[in-house]
Amino acid sequence: MLTLRLTFESFRFAWDALKSNLLRTILSLLGVTVGIFSIISVFTIVDSLESNIRSSMNFVGDKVIYIEKWPWTFGADYPWWKYFNRPVPTVREYQALRKQLSANNKGIAIFAAKSGNTLKAGTNSVSDCAVQGVSYDYRVVSSVPLEDGRYFTNQEMVSSRPWPLLGPPLPKTCTRRVARWAASSSCAASPSLSSA
Question: Model confidence over 147-184: pLDDT tens digits?
Fold first, then answer.
């Protein structure tokens, strides 16, 4: 009984203190409310930025290692001469890594890319195109969005059939001719290895 009486008396003292100092009470509640909302908004902004960065880097893949001669970005403090002296990854190294890492990975791929190409077929042309030469497991280590058709089969890769995957910006009228051109042309680029 004494505990109940002390509890009610404590609530009555608190209520009287709140009523007698109304301005202090309002300002305290306002400060706590603004503090809580600012913390929630900061966490929301950080989470949305993190998800945007993750989604924008999704093409790289999850748990992927890239082996390249050159770094992805250059800055003023990068010693380019050290990167220039690095060896270019070769198909022989790709095959050796594929044998050694076969039990521990989902896929390993080698690819070479060159951008800024102009593809021509008859009177049609498409400028500023990126051309990539890839191995079969490239779709495992990187995202390959297909608008129409299918990915290469393993038999096509093993037999080195020269058929390209064409991206969506190409007009429908020139895709077959450009596919023949892309299959017959050569494009010099440095290969890169990646492993998932």
Answer: 666 777 778 777 776 666 666 555 555 555 555 544 44
Q: Please identify which residue in the block is written with the tokens 């594929």.
A: 98
Q: Where are the domains of the chain?
A: 2-56, 65-195
Cβ–Cβ < 8 Å for 114, 130: yes
How do 108-121 and 65-67 pair as beta strands? Answer: unpaired
Amino acid at 47: D
Residue 7: C-alpha distances to residues 1, 2, 15, 18, 172 (Å) = 10, 9, 12, 17, 80
How many Cα neighbours within 13 Å face the side chain of 71?
Answer: 10
Phi and psi, residue 159, nearest 5°: -85, 0
**Range list of H helices, the chain:** 2-20, 22-56, 80-84, 91-100, 138-141, 154-158, 175-184
- Tokens 């008859």 appear where? 122
Reduce the DSSP state of residue 167 to 3 states and report it.
coil
